[in-house]
Amino acid sequence: MRHLLRSFCILRNLFSLRRTANPQRRGVCSAAMRLVQFHHHGDGGGIRVGVEQGEGLGVVDLKAFDPSIPSTMRELLELGDKGLECAQRALSSGQYVVERSDITLLSPVLAPEKVVCVGMNYRDHCLEQNAPIPKEPIIFSKFPSAITGPYDDIILPSESQEVDWEVELAFVIGRRGKHIKEEDALSYVAGFTVANDVSARDWQMKRNGKQWLLGKTFDSFCPLGPALVTTDAVRDPHNLSIRCLVNGDTVQSSNTDQMIFKTEALVAWVSKFVTLTPGDVFLTGTPPGVGVFRKPPVFLKKGDVVECQIDQLGSIINKVV
């Protein structure tokens, strides 16, 4: 009976993924999948790439299915169609499944070449601080070393007393491109995931000449996950409920339809300046409700638990230590 129930859950989730696909557009991969990075408990921390059978279900180990498949998401994306087609075959096979209790999920992407961030990209976030709507994207960055896993701790740095939360929709580039046209931009996107753009407001707004980089890039200041949900598995990335909870209390609640510059516009804009490569991560901005603009301001403290949620993508939960 347990095997029958498991088979039903797998088929249900596969059907659900296919049903949510948007046939009018294609990302890098035309298949609906939830790609993850993980390591087995007790194997010394070796990184593997897998495909979830459904949100919260078992994970198909791609390297066990095909030993020629690389061990990281970035390398898998660099294979292009070959790698993603193999992932789809592995998912369809239902073989080499590892239980969630036997693995630890990592960030869907580790060590990308770039982490591109967008400031002031939600209309309602601009309104909460009485700021004008930007006429062009405001771009900054985090160092890739800030990335941490979907359930890893956020480390409070001793250098800051004003650490804040920012739930964000993130997307990952799937193929190399420069001067990409907006109408072609989604074909360069591998998929979407959830991010927390953790921010030290004192360093962002008062120190370092008010340049944002240092306040945004402390270690552990970029939780990502839980999965890279391929573009065709997301009905409309610009109509998703997006929320942040601190200790169970909702502090941010909005919709990605509030984004000023959508995914296509961001890919086209940034690719004017730099060549985009597989694995590059974009954080697309945050909605209202951040701690710094509360009256009085509220900042994270040790013991807090931050949960960032986006419909169809999942949630990441990080304890502050």
Number of helices: 8
Describe the global form: globular
Rg value: 19 Å
Major sheet characteristics: 12 strands, mixed
Oligomer, anyone? single chain
What is the fold's blueprint, element by element?
Blueprint: H1 2-20, E1 34-40, E2 48-52, E3 59-61, H2 62-65, H3 73-78, H4 81-93, E4 97-98, E5 103-106, E6 115-119, H5 123-128, E7 138-142, E8 147-148, E9 163-164, E10 167-173, E11 189-196, E12 199-200, H6 201-205, H7 213-216, E13 222-230, E14 241-246, E15 249-255, H8 263-270, E16 281-283, E17 305-310, E18 314-319
Parallel strand pairs: 6-16, 8-13
Antiparallel strand pairs: 1-2, 1-5, 1-13, 2-3, 3-4, 6-7, 9-12, 10-11, 10-16, 11-13, 14-15, 14-17, 17-18
Question: How is this structure best summarized?
Answer:
By secondary structure, this protein is an alpha+beta fold. The protein has helices at 2-20, 62-65, 73-78, 81-93, 123-128, 201-205, 213-216, 263-270, and strands at residues 34-40, 48-52, 59-61, 97-98, 103-106, 115-119, 138-142, 147-148, 163-164, 167-173, 189-196, 199-200, 222-230, 241-246, 249-255, 281-283, 305-310, 314-319.
Please give a handful of descriptors for the protein shown.
single chain, 321 residues, alpha+beta, 12-stranded mixed β-sheet, 4-stranded antiparallel β-sheet
Describe this structure in words.
The strands form 3 sheets. Strands 1, 2, 3, 4, 5, 6, 7, 8, 10, 11, 13 and 16 form a 12-stranded mixed sheet that branches. Residues 1-25 have low confidence and may be disordered. With 321 residues, this protein is an alpha+beta fold. The termini are far apart. The protein is built from 8 helices and 18 strands. Helices cover 20% and strands 28% of the residues.
